[in-house]
Design a protein that fits this description.
alpha/beta, TIM Barrel, 2 domains, eight-stranded parallel barrel, about 25% strand, binds pyridoxal-5'-phosphate
Amino acid sequence: MDAFKYKENKLHCEDVNLSKIASSFGTPAYVYSKKALTENALMYVNSFTNPDNMACFSVKSLSNLSVLKLLKEVGCGFDVVSGGEMHRALSIGADPKSIIFSGVGKSSDEIKQGILNKILSFNVESVSELYKIEAIAKKLQMNASVSIRFNPDIDSGGHDYITTGRKGDKFGISSIEDILNLSTYISKSPNLSMVGLACHIGSQIINLESYKETAQRTFELADQIFDIGIELEFLDLGGGLGVSYDSNIHPNPEDLISCLELEFKGRKERLILEPGRSISANAGVLLTKVEYIKDEFLIVDAAMNDLLRPSLYQAKHEIWNVEKGDGNKVIRNIVGPICESSDFLGKNIKISAEEDDILAVRTAGAYGFVMSSNYNTRPRACEILVEGNQTKLIRKRESLENILEMELNLND
Ligand SMILES: Cc1ncc(COP(=O)(O)O)c(C=O)c1O
């Protein structure tokens, strides 16, 4: 669904005029639609015909506590990639048995927290990690549930930085022999239980064939593991479903799930997915004000520290003026105030805008605020959640005091 539409030439989020949000809360500001987040998540949750299947929202894509709480309420579990994200999920009351912990570099302390909280599974990404988890579980006299994240060697397409399932990518374990040896090892360990197999082939995937191929490779491996005597509880095929950053139509979560459930027919394991972008991306925009117009440049008050995707991945976002005027649209490069040539939000954008106008960078809900930083000592933007005609501040704008208070020993 698109929760951001013009009504009488004014861009709204649900029933709230975005200009009004900009004047009440200032800019830059992230604005999310509760309806879009809910509907996107329900598209996963309600599409499963097997009630044991589960969508674990990828917290890294949008980790605000109010958003996580909302997604828990509609039935999502959580995929976390750090102790910090696990802490976020637990702090909104997520059931530990709905939390999957992925990531190649889990620290001892993060592993300990996961074991103590009895999370559903650690997606183990190396042989050394497995031994570390076992040693920590042994010390705690507990049992840790693990899945092996394997590398199916599938190129899902898309930008090199978001492709993760090929041989040579740093994620998962590639050698089938290593995986089978590890599975045997786990089956003999009193401190480990092997509950699943996991993979994640990349992000912004718009071709369902890649998922089918991944499912088939996962089944082959699960069958080999079954022959060792391990019955897996679930197969986790990761996240990655793409979204439209323009007006093209791509497969949606319903398409993905009906395709995968067909592949899963006759299998005992439940299906877990780890969607991020397809739930959060189109539910958010970044509001920014035009400060100056110079030549072909619109210089705005949001920058790469607020939205890194254009600089990092050459990602393209639509950028709209929140007031649809009758001025001529011209081609502009929309850039921020940061002292880097790579600081831009959009290039060659056809737009009509004057100084002081408010622009909305669309489809910015995923990998937007979460990647923001204080580069150039710029305080991070605020986050606002809209429900119908109501707005709620869900993260305060940072102040300069917030930034400086972390720095110590000024007198040394
Ligand atoms: C392990 C893992 N799971 C899930 C995701 C979510 O991917 P997406 O936001 O593309 O759905 C990611 C993102 O890269 C990931 O690394």
